[in-house]
Amino acid sequence: MKNTFKKIAALAAAALLVVAMAVPVFATEYPSGKGGDGSLTIENASYGETYAAYKIFDAKLNDAQDSASGITYYATADQKNAFEALTGNVFTFTAISDGTYEVGVKADADVISFLKDLSSIPGAVQEFSGDADATGVMAITGLPYGYYYVTSSLGSVVTIDSTNGAATIYDKNTSTPSVPEDPKTAAAATKSVGQIDTYTLTFTATNYYNTENATAEPQKIYNYTIVDTSEDIAVDTTTVTVKVGDTTLTADDYTVTYEDGTMTIVIPWTTDGTADTDFLYANNSNVVITYDAEILALDDATNEATFNWNTENEFGEGSTDVKNYDINFEKTDSQGELLAGAEFTLYTADEDGAQTTTPINLVKIQDGWYRLANSEDDAATIVTTIVVADGTENLENTFKEGFAKIEGLENGTYYLQEDKAPSGYNKLTEAITVTIDNADVAADKVQIVNYTGSELPSTGGIGTTIFYIVGGVLVVAAIVVLVVKRRRAE
């Protein structure tokens, strides 16, 4: 056997007699080519995984009157000596003829653990190896009768408990659906209110569910139901996509309902969505669901999902938060005194970082306090002008004079363009640049100062007016000189 059993973990080992039996209706037959009369069925086999059956001891059927189990297992003298030399040997050997021994198992022995820990099993012979197809059921035929040890490339232990001649194995390695560490994610960690983010749900689907009771028969799964709940986002159900393995399903292959902030997606896993029909998809399939949704909530748009088999049996949950932030600023004079009466518009930056030409749509909460608009807002409530507070309105929060707050912004660069200056002050000629980086922008970081006096040109030079004046003086002087010269000449 070399080191085969050290490289791959055991599916199972127990006192099995592989006997002739009918191939299950929905199984795929795998002829062993060994010329025997036995058959071994592996239920819930994982698509694409390799299964191997090793015969450890020969066996024969007895008359039912001669043996309670109807099965007798035999070992050679070499096998007996090899097993008895191993630490923790679980088998007993009773001589029945020269060089032949009947095999038994010690009371309370853990046969699986014992065999799994061996680097090689004395006398074991591989009678079959093959890859499971999408049916999830492997019927291995033509096997010699014997005591078998079955392995898989998946690497976990599954118990076989069958001594009644019906050799059927349930592969419990992958028979429980599962979710990854982060089963629900969003494409963008920050997104402005009113903008669209893409969400992804991921889980591994199996054809059966096993309880923690190793002897309990697995339950057949006929649908998967995902319940996605959030009042913080608005889902566009027309963007839902479902992919099972490498196959993208059509809209007829699943159902989507959406009501009061809850979206429910049901994926039938059998041909008619009941336990009585064939599986539609391979066992151990990776399922990926995506959809687009608009961000509605301020600060944190939280979204949660539960994953269920057969409608209501939850096997996982996930959540994600998409954040947005505030820009706060103060309008002051050159002495730091707060000023009311200023008006601004807010712009985003384009891909090159330059100011865009369309102002951001907002909804006024109260004087000086605004949030980004979303698709659920009445058009009549949408504004683009930000008026700094005058300190008089008293709603949930009275903002002091000269203060303004804009909520619901994602990470990025923004431009505050002053459209109207406080009375008696000069309007700014250039926009103020503000950057959000995973945090609210405090007002003391954005203090916008207005000055009194003559308006200076935006270029920062001394302007053209002085040149017009000087030019005019020089022209007048030239005319005076010309007149004086003519009179002297006369």
What is the rounded Rg? 40 Å
Q: Describe the biggest sheet?
A: 7 strands, antiparallel
Helix-strand makeup class: mainly beta
Q: Give me the count of strands.
A: 33
Uncertain regions spanning at least 5 consecutive residues: 1-22, 64-68, 156-166, 456-470
| Measured distance between first and last alpha carbons | 135 Å
In round numbers, the mean pLDDT is 82
Number of helices: 4
| Strand proportion | 35-45%
Specify the overall morphology: elongated
Number of domains: 4
Describe this structure in words.
It is built from four helices and 33 strands. The strands form seven sheets. Strands 1, 4, 5, 6, 7, 8 and 10 form a seven-stranded antiparallel sheet that branches. Strands 28-26-27-30-24-33 form a six-stranded mixed sheet, with no helix packed on it. Strands 12-13-21-17-18 form a five-stranded antiparallel sheet, with no helix packed on it. The radius of gyration is 40 Å and the shape is elongated. Residues 1-22, 64-68, 156-166 and 456-470 have low confidence and may be disordered. It has 490 residues and is mostly beta strands.
